[in-house]
Design a protein that fits this description.
By secondary structure, the protein is of the alpha+beta class. The chain has 4 helices and 6 strands. It has helices at about 5-15, 20-25, 50-65, 120-130; strands at about 25-35, 45-50, 65-75, 80-90, 95-110, 110-120. β5 (about 95-110) and β6 (about 110-120) form a beta hairpin. The protein is globular and about 40 Å long.
Amino acid sequence: MFSTVELVQVFLARLAAQDAPGIARLCAPSVEWEAPDPTGARWSAGPRTRREVESWFLTLFATFDLEQLSARQVVVDGTDAAVIGSARWRVRATGDAVEARFAAVISVHLGEIEQYWHLPDTLAVARAAA
């Protein structure tokens, strides 16, 4: 079972590796979810299954190629963690680059992600995907 710090480290490593199935395996059977669609067009919230989490990340990685991921700060308080960072993505359809800052809030229960909030710079993402 992962501690909160370990789970965040593994999550970031799997994100950098664009490992959608691996990210989904870190999740509880139901994850309280708040994140925009990968193109930044609309927000979705509410519970997600592992399969839905995997699908979200597969769509993200099919739309954008992650070139660089940087976690500027990780704050852990018990079972909650906040990650503040930036990422450089390449839009697969156009080859355009996009730099986007983000914050992610991850809550852990029994070594699994039970809550995930992803707060990216949606304007930068939407402009790049347009």
